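Weekly sync, protein design subgroup
Attendees: M.S., D.O., the rotation student, P.L. (late)

Item 1: inverse folding check
M.S. brought a backbone from last month's batch and wanted to see whether the design step gives back something sensible before we order anything. D.O. pointed out we never logged the input encoding, so this time it goes straight into the notes. Structure tokens as presented (43 positions):
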């Protein structure tokens, strides 16, 4: 596993935090799953 540093716009960060509270998952898992979905749609 690799480390990654992101700079997010405040609005995106705040919206993500709200989503994470609703779905009760970690930020790391959420971002990994989102990137996996993006990868699958790019194929």
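Designed sequence read out in the meeting:
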């Amino acid at each position: 596993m690799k480390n990654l540093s992101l700079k997010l716009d405040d609005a995106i960060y705040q919206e993500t935090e709200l989503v994470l509270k609703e779905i009760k998952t970690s930020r790391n898992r959420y971002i990994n799953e989102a990137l996996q979905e993006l990868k699958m749609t790019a194929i």
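Discussion: The CA atoms of residues 9 and 15 lie 10 Å apart. The first helix runs from residue 10 to 23.
Action: P.L. to compare against the previous round before Friday.
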